[in-house]
């Protein structure tokens, strides 16, 4: 994942491409990866803020305006379950992966590995040209 | 720090959350705001711990700014809605162009415009009146087309339409424009020559124009004014065909010269009809009249009137036909030049795939 983002970043900067175009492509590239990253983190229970911090610490910063709508969508799709609980005298919504989410996550992970391997081969071949 | 200044950053946060809440769907407002509020308060706490003091207004504003415009933040919680989705949009664009540019505009140029402008005493005023009507018609038509497509989008008919397709629904490849064949051009040239000879002869032999009626009818003086412009028009057509035969590689020339001939024909015809309509109504025989040698009778006068009216109607019909032809030829010319641009796809290339 990191490798792919770096390649795109390098291409945009070296070619002097339109920064708006780069931003659009970067967001497209991140969109699918974020779902995978969020599902991976929610194998253990998190509430929004700690989830954001943990993703950010792993190098995948995500703003609240993106994360919370994504969490809601994944919950509506049945991949996550959530519950409100009090912690440190404040009500917080905790998320974790549902059994359906775990099944879909396993499939997505396989797909991701396959895409990543294909992309690596393609980029290596492109590098040799 | 005073109590008032302490409360200001918190008030800013509350106002921000209220701003987001305003744009959220009612059913989800409380839930989303509780979660967003918790996140923002956690960020504030972390920042305050880092600084060792409460945040001031600017620092709070920085956190909220990073979170984003309340409308944008709220919009992310809504499902994506489009009046006309990407699947239907190309068809919508095509229909809109077709209706506005290829139906409505030609109707205004050929029928509505002349019908409103020509009889008016103030042509400029009538022209601007037609422009206003055209704009209203454009606006209303576009609104109706958009509404129809929005309904198709909502009802899911678009999905049905875009998913059901097969071999038969694929469009045929456009025909590659072929220059007219030499035989065809030579025939046209011969007919243009015969036309000129006929036109030159008809002045001396009215039988060629009027047939048996020439025994008692003769062309009216109006033709003296328009005879030579008509001869020039016929000569122009001859020159056009000559160039087509001599330089067949000039593919732009046939449509361009045809359009030019049609427009010149329209102008001559317009003046001819105008001149005919200016003839005093008491002696209205603008095109043909009784020959001097013939004694006027009631029956012959009626025949002359019928022939004149028939010629006028034929001319009006020709004018309408030429106007439509001019619009079509203009479209053909535009398409011809578009095909010549490098961005256009050569149909021959398409066949390779």
The CATH topology of chain A: Arc Repressor Mutant, subunit A
Strand order of the largest sheet of chain B: 1-2
How large, in whole angstroms, is the Cα Rg of chain B?
A: 36 Å
The proportion of strand residues of chain A reads 5-15%
Low confidence ranges of chain B: 1-6, 343-353
Largest interchain contact: A-B, 16 and 17 residues
Describe the protein's architecture and organization.
- The complex is a heterodimer of chains A (129) and B (353).
- Chain A has 129 residues and is of the alpha+beta class.
- Chain A has one domain: Arc Repressor Mutant, subunit A (Orthogonal Bundle).
- Chain A has helices spanning 2-15, 19-41, 48-57, 64-76, 99-128; strands spanning 46-47, 80-87, 90-97.
- A three-stranded antiparallel sheet of chain A has the order 1-3-2.
- The longest helix of chain A is centred in the C-terminal third of the chain and has 30 residues, at 99-128.
- Chain B has helices at residues 3-22, 29-51, 57-67, 70-75, 89-117, 123-155, 157-163, 182-202, 207-210, 222-246, 253-277, 298-340, 347-352; strands at residues 217-219, 288-290.
- Chain B is elongated and about 120 Å long.
- Chain B has three domains: 3-75, no CATH class; 89-161; 182-352, no CATH class.
- By secondary structure, chain B is mostly helical.
- Residues 1-6 and 343-353 of chain B have low confidence and may be disordered.
- Chain B is built from 13 helices and two strands.
- Chain A binds chain B through residues 47-49, 52, 63-66, 68-69, 72, 84, 90-93, and chain B through 32, 34-36, 38-43, 66-68, 72-73, 76-77.
């Amino acid at each position: 994942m990191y490798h792919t983002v770096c390649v795109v970043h390098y291409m945009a900067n070296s070619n002097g491409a339109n920064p708006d175009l780069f931003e659009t492509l970067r967001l497209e590239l991140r969109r699918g990866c974020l779902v995978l990253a969020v599902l991976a983190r929610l194998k253990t229970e998190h509430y929004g803020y700690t989830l954001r911090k943990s993703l950010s610490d792993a190098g995948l910063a995500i703003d609240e305006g993106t994360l919370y709508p994504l969490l809601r969508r994944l919950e509506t799709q049945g991949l996550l379950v959530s519950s409100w609980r009090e912690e440190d005298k404040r009500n917080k919504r905790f998320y974790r992966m549902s059994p359906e989410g775990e099944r879909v996550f396993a499939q997505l992970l396989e797909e991701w590995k396959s895409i990543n391997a294909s992309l690596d081969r393609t980029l290596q071949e492109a590098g040799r040209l | 720090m005073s109590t008032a200044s302490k409360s200001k950053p918190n008030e800013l946060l509350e106002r921000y959350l209220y701003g987001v809440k305003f744009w959220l769907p009612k059913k989800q407002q409380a839930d989303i705001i509780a979660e967003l509020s918790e996140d923002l308060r956690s960020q504030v706490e972390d920042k305050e711990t880092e600084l060792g003091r409460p945040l001031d207004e600017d620092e709070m504003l920085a956190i909220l700014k990073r979170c984003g415009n309340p409308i944008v933040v709220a919009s992310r919680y809504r499902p994506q809605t489009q009046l006309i989705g990407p699947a239907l949009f190309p068809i919508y664009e095509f229909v809109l162009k077709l209706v506005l540019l290829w139906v409505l505009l030609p109707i205004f140029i050929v029928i509505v415009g002349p019908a409103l402008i020509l009889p008016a005493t103030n042509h400029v005023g009538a022209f601007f009146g037609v422009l206003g009507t055209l704009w209203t018609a454009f606006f209303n038509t576009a609104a109706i087309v958009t509404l129809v497509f929005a309904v198709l989008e909502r009802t899911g008919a678009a999905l049905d339409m875009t998913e059901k397709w097969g071999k038969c629904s694929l469009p045929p490849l456009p025909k590659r424009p072929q220059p007219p064949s030499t035989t065809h051009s030579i025939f046209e040239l011969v007919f243009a020559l015969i036309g000129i000879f006929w036109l030159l002869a008809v002045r001396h032999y009215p039988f060629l124009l009027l047939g048996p009626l020439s025994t008692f009818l003769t062309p009216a003086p109006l033709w003296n004014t328009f005879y030579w412009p008509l001869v020039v028009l016929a000569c122009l057509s001859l020159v056009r065909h000559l160039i087509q035969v001599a330089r067949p590689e000039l593919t732009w020339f046939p449509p361009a010269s045809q359009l030019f001939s049609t427009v010149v024909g329209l102008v001559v015809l317009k003046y001819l009809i105008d001149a005919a309509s200016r003839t005093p109504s008491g002696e209205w025989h603008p095109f043909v009249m009784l020959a001097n040698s013939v004694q006027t009778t009631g029956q012959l006068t009626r025949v002359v009137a019928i022939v004149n009216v028939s010629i006028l109607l034929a001319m009006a019909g020709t004018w309408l036909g030429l106007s439509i032809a001019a619009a079509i030829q203009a479209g053909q010319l535009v398409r011809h030049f578009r095909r010549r641009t490098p961005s256009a796809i050569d149909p021959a290339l398409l066949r390779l795939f």
